[in-house]
Specification:
Keywords: Oxidoreductase. Helix 4 links the parallel strand 4 and strand 5. The chain contains seven helices and seven strands; from the N terminus they run E-H-E-H-E-H-E-H-E-H-E-H-E-H. By secondary structure, it is an alpha/beta fold. The longest helix has 29 residues.
Length: 260
């Protein structure tokens, strides 16, 4: 992936900042997007000095229409961009029913609306060039109904479903599309919701450097779905086969016998 230009959202900390560091170490030029201009600028300078790459900063709040439009325009019009790391996201404190609906709506705007718009633009642009890479950061909670905030889980299920469909639409156009499903990762997302990652079982929490290194290795290997902590990906394939088994029966002209 050397000599390419990657646009990374949510790049000021956590997974996004770690993508920036590891892609810069591979020789990629970068465009860093996040709200915190000071942190972005400090990260950009450190990457220029450490790796000799070009790094530009675009401070933006992707929940604001005008900021999202500005980043979308950059993605559409900057012909050097070859990679989109669609990482920006948030969660809210508490479970769905007790959580702030205002915060939940902000989360939906960031996790779903912004990611969808940037995915759509990148898909159109990269398809027209017959080249490009899109990484959409979802979560293992896309597969979970039994715990955590249901609205957050639903946003990540949306990301997974959208990405899988994009993979179908972009097949044959030389555009790589990867869905990354992190588990618990040592990032600031916990502190932002009043929790501490140190309260979680250590064996369940992956270091962010390990997570991103695995994600990039999965991308190199052509994985459509990367779940860094799952040793046996046959489990995922079995999951997909079970889902596929029901598809011939989900829309028929008569109700099932149990309803008659």
């Amino acid at each position: 992936m050397s000599h390419q230009l990657a646009l990374i959202t949510g790049a000021s900390s956590g997974i996004g900042a770690t993508y920036a560091k590891q892609l810069a170490a591979r020789g990629n030029d970068l465009i860093l997007v996040a709200r915190d201009a000071a942190r972005l600028s400090a990260l950009a300078q450190s990457l220029r000095e450490a790796h000799g790459v070009e790094v530009s900063v675009l401070a933006a709040d992707l929940t604001r229409h005008e900021d999202l439009a500005r980043i979308d325009s950059e993605l559409r019009n900057n012909t050097r961009i070859t990679t989109l790391i669609n990482n920006a996201g948030m969660t809210v404190e508490g479970e769905f029913i007790d959580a702030s609906i205002d915060q939940t709506q902000t989360m939906l705007t960031l996790n779903v609306v912004a990611l969808t718009q940037l995915s759509h633009t990148a898909a159109q642009v990269f398809r027209s060039r017959n080249a490009g890479t899109i990484v959409n950061v979802a979560s293992v909670l896309a597969l979970v109904n039994e715990q955590a905030n249901g609205a957050y889980n639903a946003t990540k299920a949306f990301v997974l479903s959208l990405t899988r469909n994009m993979q179908r639409e972009l097949a044959g156009h030389n555009v790589r599309v990867q869905a990354l499903l992190p588990g618990l990762t040592r990032t600031e997302i916990f502190q932002r919701t009043g929790r501490s990652v140190n309260d979680l079982p250590a064996e369940m929490v992956m270091e962010v450097d390990d997570l991103v290194a695995a994600a990039l290795r999965g991308l190199d290997d052509g994985e459509a779905i990367t779940i860094p902590s799952v040793e046996d990906m046959g489990l995922w394939h079995s999951f997909e086969q079970a889902r596929g088994a029901i598809l011939p029966f989900i829309s028929l002209n008569k109700p099932a016998m149990r309803y008659r």
